[in-house]
Design goal:
Helix content: 40-55%
Number of strands: 8
Largest sheet: 6 strands, mixed
Bound molecules: uracil
Order of helices and strands: HEEHHHHEEHHEHEHHEEHH
Shape: elongated
Strand content: 5-15%
Oligomer: single chain
Radius of gyration: 33 Å
């Protein structure tokens, strides 16, 4: 008997019992014609009427029927599943960088492991730019504009980052790659939770493994602390070149203030420019005064 049918009968009998109809003597033998295996009247011992304590309700009788043993189907571990999928994408010998990033972005778009973010986002924001770039900028998480457009750094802080890239570094935004620690917008732009950053980390690691940049610029505390697994402040991390050991080699890392902090505190732009010059020097880029 299936669990559903059995439970249905139990519910039904409960109703009957509540209305006083349901109590029956389960031990009462069936009449002869319905019970061919029963002994003949001559063989039968006189039917003893059971004591009330021996009586069972039909409901109990049904409950006592033995359920068929359920097959236990092992649940697939979604984390292992994702790790395997990501590894298959990254290590595919047949697809190029563009296809790998497309497949990875497809996995990101399906991701719902951070239920709050998956519920509140309009879309995921994977990253944008040149997959052959030596330099990757890493921000915190998409904001409202990014969530609407599906592209990182397109709002006001995006404009500030564009100024750093085009007026400071004098390169074009399409020459470099930009992504974030998180691929989803946190509600009301709150800071990413450590568990969210950890869940999203395989996507960041895979992105870096596909692009294989030589340099990373971390924009702000969240990016710097998460990438480098440190609790040091941005004030302690900026102003120098650090090394990050990726699976494919060593990446030089320069941390600086987040563009949105520069919008709130324009006085910090001078320090941010110093950081960018350190990065450019490391990359061998010519350093010119900030252009208009
Ligand atoms: N802030 C970020 O950190 N990333 C974006 O993509 C936009 C704003």
């Amino acid at each position: 008997m299936s669990r559903q049918i059995r439970n249905g009968i139990v519910d039904y009998l409960e109703i009957l019992q509540m209305s006083g109809i349901g109590e029956v003597n389960k031990l009462q033998p069936l009449p002869q014609e319905q019970n061919p295996s029963a002994a003949s009247p001559a063989q039968q011992s006189p039917v003893a009427k059971p004591e009330p304590a021996q009586r069972k309700t039909l409901q109990q009788a049904v409950l006592e029927t033995k359920e068929p043993e359920e097959k236990i189907i092992p649940k697939k571990n979604t984390e292992t599943d994702l790790t395997e999928k990501i590894a298959a994408i990254v290590n595919s010998g047949t697809s190029g960088k563009t296809e790998k990033i497309r497949l990875l972005a497809q996995e990101v778009a399906k991701c719902s492991r951070c239920s709050e973010l998956a519920f509140s986002r309009i879309q995921t924001v994977f990253g944008q730019g040149n997959l052959d770039s030596e330099l990757v900028f890493i921000g915190e998480a998409p904001g409202e504009d990014e969530d609407k457009q599906g592209i990182p750094f397109v709002g006001r802080s995006g404009q500030q980052l564009n100024d750093i890239i085009t007026k400071g570094m004098r390169i074009s935004r399409d020459e470099i790659y930009i992504c974030n620690i998180l691929r989803c917008r946190p509600p009301k732009n709150r800071n990413p939770l450590p568990v969210e950053a950890e869940r999203c980390r395989p996507f960041l690691d895979a992105t870096l493994e596909i692009i294989k940049p030589k340099y990373i610029c971390c924009l702000g505390t969240v990016a710097a602390q998460n990438l480098l697994h440190t609790e040091r402040t941005i004030g302690q991390l900026r102003g120098k070149v650090m090394e990050y050991q990726a699976s494919f080699g060593t990446i030089k890392v320069v941390c600086t203030y987040h563009p949105s902090y520069l919008l709130r505190s324009p006085g910090a732009k001078k320090d941010a420019w110093e950081d960018i010059k350190i990065l450019m020097n490391e990359m061998g880029l010519p350093i010119l005064p900030i252009g208009k």
